[in-house]
Amino acid sequence: xADTSRPDHLPNxxxxxxPPHPSxxxxxxxxxxxxxxxxxxxxxxxxxxxxxxxxxxKVVLARLEPxxxxxxxTEAEEPCLRAFCDTVLAQDAEPRVPAAESVDDKxxxxxxxxxxYADMPDDRDTWRLVLRALDETASRRYGKASFADAEDETRxxxxxxxxxxxxxxxxxxxxxVKRAWSVCxxxxxxxxxxxxxxxxxxxxxxxxxxxxFMRLGGPTGPAAVREPFERPGATEEDPVRVxxxxxx
Length: 248
Description:
This protein is mainly α and 248 residues long.
């Protein structure tokens, strides 16, 4: 495992500002995480499922069911959707949290954010336009057949420009690009972090009702205390303190 006493593994502190592949983390030994790596290799949130009320347990466990076929996005749009979700979430190997299916389900059911930017189309239209625009950019700027057909480095470059609102021309002219990024990422991240595999990856305790919390101390340091269901991380450094120390 990489030396985590230095901040070289933290985002934006390496040459070019690109974080390393998450494989510097240990292999997951208990439960499932995306790509079977994570900071909490001996933690499985599902071991506490008996402490959840029946309604909560039903909702959470349903997220583990094998996803069905897409209902909102077309067969032609699906490859770009999956490539986009995999790229922004750095999911380049199985097991993957089914983020694409989560986005598709919300759009198919019309479960949107409850508000819409005045200068943006409906979120459903935004998604279709974004996927079309990503394919156009991959073809026009990088000479690829589509966004999904592009290699990782090209997809990451396009996504980076998308996040900064630096894409233009073609279908992008029909969107406020920065707002389009926000619309898409809210939905992608919502789907990812609502899944128990993502909870295992970050050591999240899952639903606290009706169990509640028993410990009042901090999670790190000499006086660290943990809930009975919590597990220590494979690395204990505080990224914020490391960065502020200037030991780069």
